Fold:
Amino acid sequence: MSEEGGDMEQSEEDRTGRRKHEEERDRDSRNATVRKEEDQAETINGRRVCARTCARTCALKKQRPE
Structure:
């Protein structure tokens, strides 16, 4: 019985470690996505900006008639 308890404890540690590893992998993936967006940067007034910023800027311009 005590061995099973040890397995349960180890299993919980494995899950915690696995969860931490998955969070790190997800964070790395998001960072890679951001870098990829920055590589595909567009220019506004001669300055490099990422596509997300371009989309936000365009949306704001559409909301405010000049």
